[in-house]
Amino acid sequence: MSAAEQPAGGTAGGGGNAAINAQVAAAKTSFYWAMRFLPKARREAMFAVYAFCRAVDDIADSDDAPAAKLAALAAWRREIDAIYEGTPVLPLSRALAGPIRSYDLRRGDFIAIVAGMEMDARADIVAPSLDELDLYCDRVACAVGRLSARIFGAPQNHADRVANALGRALQLTNILRDLAEDAARGRLYLPRELLDKHGIKDRAPSAVLAHRALPAVCAEIAAMARKRYAEAGEAMKGCPPGTMRPAAVMGAVYADILARLEKRGWRRIDDRVSVPAPLKLWYALRYGFL
């Protein structure tokens, strides 16, 4: 593969696991707090998956033309094939090869993540249908969860149930948290059926966010997310003790974000909501040792 054909962002983590670990630790995301209590091998596997997700997400969010984004993501599709064929080229790909073998990670889940990024890369998503939104959530969030749950060590069926519920809950929460940021990019992930239901006919993101019925739409999305959090919690009960600790931490942090968003309301969406680092650590301690 020539340099021009290599996946953009493919050198994320540059020198291997140590650099990837440093990259994730420096970000101090909710993901970092949730994963830090995993055994070293599983933690490094998760950090490699995270670095892959960041690499392809950075492509989709770049200012490049759609054709350039799609070409870079197509290069990642080829690189994923190369990993499974035993011929990875990039440092990040080589960091993924071991976890893929150790935890039987599915090629289809990696491809689904790339496909989700392609949805963003082709054109700005504006008022998708509920079905399109669900597909997007499955690709960009649930597929990550399915990879993660296998690394955690949960049996496949139970792991997938948790991933499919929690992934949707987390992504819907992200959509509500990032309304203003997404609108600045020309994106609007609120589904058209709910906009129509509440009398919002304009599809321009800025106009939707200024509409008096926006709180009603957001309240319905929040209710959808809470239902998914509850489903994920029930599904976790069927998993072996301890295997879903990181997922429980992530669920607790993001459910807290959702509660803070609802308390803030939907008229001050420029007011960024986040969970303070000490509280993230408390969630990690509370759920990390269940």
Compact description:
Helices cover 70% and strands 0% of the residues.
Report on this structure.
- With 290 residues, the chain is an all-alpha fold.
- It folds into 2 domains: 12-123, Farnesyl Diphosphate Synthase; 124-290, Farnesyl Diphosphate Synthase.
- It has helices at residues 17-27, 30-35, 40-60, 66-84, 91-103, 107-122, 130-152, 156-177, 179-184, 192-197, 205-210, 214-236, 245-264, 277-288.
- The radius of gyration is 19 Å and the shape is globular.
- The termini are far apart.
- The relative contact order is 0.11.
- Residues 1-5 and 9-15 have low confidence and may be disordered.
The CATH homologous superfamily of the largest domain is termed Farnesyl Diphosphate Synthase
CATH architecture of the largest domain: Orthogonal Bundle
Name the shape in a single word.
Answer: globular
Question: How are helices and strands ordered from N to C?
Answer: HHHHHHHHHHHHHH
Structural class: mainly alpha
The overall strand count is 0
Give me the Rg, rounded. 19 Å
| Distance from first to last alpha carbon | 46 Å
Which CATH first-tier class of the largest domain would you pick? Mainly Alpha
Strand content: under 5%
> At the third CATH level, what is the topology name of the largest domain?
Farnesyl Diphosphate Synthase
Taking the sheet with the most strands, its summary is:
none
Bin the helical content: over 70%
Total number of domains: 2
Question: What is the mean pLDDT?
Answer: 89
Which spans of ≥5 residues are poorly predicted at pLDDT below 50?
1-5, 9-15
